[in-house]
Amino acid sequence: MKTPRILRFPRIFRSVFTKLTLISLVTWLLLVIVIIATFGVLRHNSESPFLKHTNLYVDYLLQDLGTPSTRQKALELYRQTDLHISFIGNEQSWTTKDQLPDFEEVRFHRFSEDGKLFISRPRFGGHLIQLKTEDGRLYFEFAGTDDSSHQAARLILLVSLSVFLLASYFAIKRVLRPLKWLDTGVQQVKEGNLEHEVPVRGKDELAELGRNFNEMTSSLTAMLAAKEQLLRDISHELRSPLARMRIALELCEGEEGKRDIEEDIAEMEAMLAMLLEAAKQTHGLNRQNRQPCDLVDLVDRMVAKYGSRPPGVEMQVEEKPLILEADPQALQRLITNCLDNAFKFSGDGAAPIEVVLSSRDDSILLSIRDHGCGIAEADVINIFEPFWRVDASRSRKTGGFGLGLSIAKTVVEAHGGRIEARSEKGKGTTMIITLPMHG
For the domain 186-284, what is the CATH code? Predict the structure, then answer.
């Protein structure tokens, strides 16, 4: 059964800026519709008085024109009223304009009871009235503004609306500019740059959010600095008694007791080194240490360091380089920790460890599989937790403190990737690491 495809809108339609712009545009269109509808209702309500007055006005015009009407009398009326009059008769036709207009395409509707008076729909030039007489048809043109004026008005309206929309665009963009600053700040913090501060302008809610963001990063910086200082203090305080223990060890008699003390000291020193390494990887990964790395070459060199150590390693990598933007030392620590675990929990008689490196789309996949003792399904979710071990009693045997995979996870996530473990008791464990191709 196919999984239904989720409809995804382009990124531009998911931005707050675009949404606010569309809201402004829709609001403007609705306002225009309401204005047009309002004027339409007002014009409809005023149509009846207008037609009544027009009917009376035409009667007065006919009296002034006389019978029969002539172009001379029509011109006198035109000079007094700016009302153009045209006549189309059976024997003659004339007009107060430069040339006789073509009225054939004009649509009229009757508005007098005797069926002689007709009026056209409103035009940019005004209303046109047609009166049927015994000799022909008289046309009265109630002139408004001319077409050129209306074209200029339409152009001014179009330019005004464009300026309005453009101004709205830049106004919304300016108002939402702090969101862009905050987004940049979040990305910087995500990459480990806690010293980044977002600009703060004004006193509105977004400015307050920017100030809170800067205060948050300052607090985080102080907390992490205090944590790192605590680790350094602990390291310093522990190294001093360790040094005294070594001196006492030199003076101690009895080989068996000395051996136990030496092992305890070595274990404490190793744990201190791992703690400091964990702190360094957690708080020290940022883009300042990154550079283009060929993961094929890096994995090949790291695997070569294990030489002929049993149970051996089988590699399967792509021939082409797999380049990503990364911290080389952090990647070496990541690969070393995963290979160390694979070797530690594989017996000498187990099948060789399998290392597979490939690419898919814009990602690099690194798989490290051993055929050792494996991990119970219920415990797999805990292996990336600091200090967690499947069997605490194996610490002295393997030299592990439960920090290796925690550090590995930190390195992978700092590079925008992910790491997961698949394991089955008695059949081995597979570490699957996915990293973005370009960092």
Answer: 1.10.287.130
